[in-house]
């Protein structure tokens, strides 16, 4: 479902960085999944009924009482929000951060894109996870980096494999990790590997981008301390999109002050500044600790129940034909068909049955993951998820009945 970038016809005069770029398979599915009859397990969309719209409305009204909320703001973000983020992240990493070490961005994806521009020259090596987060693959691809994948297992990135590659001469500029409730695999980087990864960064001098939009969405217990707790060579990203509301478009990064200053400089040429209004709204919500704790507990409980409903439905519908990762938090479940089912072809049948998912190939770097898929359990309630799996099973049965060669593909 992905498409290549426009061909580099000289008459178009597009830049060389457009060569080889692919549109996100998830973005490409949005037109289909916008239809109300479709159950989309594809996009990483929070449940709209859990977005605190009334609380946001009250905060917006208060923010609009100040005329500065509709004016241009600082490129690095509204100062009180940077102070709030610095305080919250100080608690997470176990050392005091200054607000000058924080930049507010238009979602954490912008932070990733800006860091790619700041840190990378064409041809620089970036270590990514296999399978990898599509937004990171796009950002690093646009920076014309050379991607080197390191496999994931149940404990996250295999840092022993990374160390072996480093001892053999690999010299990355950046290592990217989605440390908590990985997108797409759903796994958590273990505490031991977090310390190991940080020690490798200190020894070999690369930057770690710790991408953590899902860390607050734990079910039974929080994830281990961030990688940033173990090294000052970590640039840590997070966002309010998954916990407050995607439409606020409030994300942030923190790390080395010199990198933050460089990010701010590049950001001036990108959007001048973010939304003063939504940053003020986000500040009020993040500062209201009692309300936020209750809100997050509600979201965690709902997502835990939904993940359980999805997994039970998958096990009932497919039995031993399918395996899945254990889900401890976040929004995603990674599945693999053990009978050789090609999920890219299965998606065509699934669309005919008004259900969607993302084939594993969309996340591949060096591997195709042809029998895997990512399912999001956050968007729908348990009953809809069960119905979605039933549609998926019917699509699977239709796929088995009709040999692919007979469809003309």
From TrEMBL:
The keyword Transferase belongs to this UniProt entry's keyword annotation: yes
Keywords: Aminotransferase, Pyridoxal phosphate, Transferase
Reported cofactor(s): pyridoxal 5'-phosphate
A GO MF label: transaminase activity
Residues covered by the Aminotransferase class I/classII large domain: 38-392
Organism domain of life: Bacteria
Example GO biological process: alpha-amino acid metabolic process
A Pfam family recorded for this sequence: Aminotran_1_2
UniProt cross-references to InterPro entries, sorted A to Z: Aminotransferase_I/II_large (IPR004839), Class-I_PLP-dep_aminotransf (IPR050859), PyrdxlP-dep_Trfase (IPR015424), PyrdxlP-dep_Trfase_major (IPR015421), PyrdxlP-dep_Trfase_small (IPR015422)
Family listed: Belongs to the class-I pyridoxal-phosphate-dependent aminotransferase family.
Quaternary structure and partners: Homodimer.
Protein name per its UniProtKB record: PLP-dependent aminotransferase family protein
Species, as recorded: Rhodococcus spongiicola
């Amino acid at each position: 479902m992905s498409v290549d970038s426009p061909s580099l016809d000289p008459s178009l005069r597009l830049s060389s960085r457009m060569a080889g770029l692919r549109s996100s398979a998830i973005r490409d599915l949005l037109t289909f999944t916008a239809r109300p009859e479709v159950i989309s397990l594809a996009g990483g969309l929070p449940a709209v009924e859990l977005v605190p719209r009334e609380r946001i409305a009250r905060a917006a009204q208060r923010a609009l009482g100040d005329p500065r909320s509709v004016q241009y703001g600082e490129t690095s973000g509204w100062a009180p929000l940077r102070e709030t983020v610095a305080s919250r992240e100080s608690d997470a990493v176990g050392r005091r951060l200054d607000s000058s070490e924080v930049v507010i961005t238009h979602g954490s994806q912008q932070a990733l894109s800006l860091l790619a521009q700041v840190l990378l020259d064409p041809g620089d090596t970036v270590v990514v996870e296999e399978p990898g987060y599509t937004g990171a693959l796009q950002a690093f691809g646009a920076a014309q980096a050379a991607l080197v994948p390191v496999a994931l297992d149940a404990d996250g990135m295999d840092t022993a494999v990374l160390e072996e590659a480093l001892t053999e001469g690999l010299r990355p500029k950046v290592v990217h990790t989605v440390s908590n409730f990985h997108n797409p695999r759903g796994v958590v980087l273990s505490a031991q590997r977090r310390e190991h990864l940080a020690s490798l960064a200190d020894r070999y001098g690369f930057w770690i981008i710790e991408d953590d939009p899902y860390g607050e969405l734990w079910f039974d217990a929080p994830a281990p301390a961030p990688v940033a707790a173990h090294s000052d060579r970590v640039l840590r990203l997070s966002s309010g999109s998954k916990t407050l509301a995607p439409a606020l478009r409030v994300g942030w990064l923190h790390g080395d002050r010199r990198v933050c200053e460089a990010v701010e400089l590049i950001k001036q040429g990108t959007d001048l500044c973010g939304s003063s209004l939504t940053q003020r709204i986000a500040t009020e919500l993040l500062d209201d600790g009692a309300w936020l704790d209750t809100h997050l507990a509600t979201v965690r409980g709902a997502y835990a129940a939904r993940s359980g409903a999805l997994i039970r439905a998958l096990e009932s519908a497919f039995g031993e034909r399918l395996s899945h990762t254990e889900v401890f938090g976040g929004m995603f479940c990674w599945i693999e068909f053990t009978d050789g089912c090609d999920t890219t072809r299965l998606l065509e049948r699934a669309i005919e049955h008004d259900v969607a998912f993302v084939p594993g190939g969309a996340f591949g770097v060096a591997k195709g993951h042809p029998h895997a898929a990512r399912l999001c359990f956050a968007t729908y309630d348990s009953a809809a998820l069960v119905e979605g799996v039933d549609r998926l099973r019917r699509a699977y049965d239709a796929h088995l009945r009709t040999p692919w060669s007979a469809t003309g593909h």
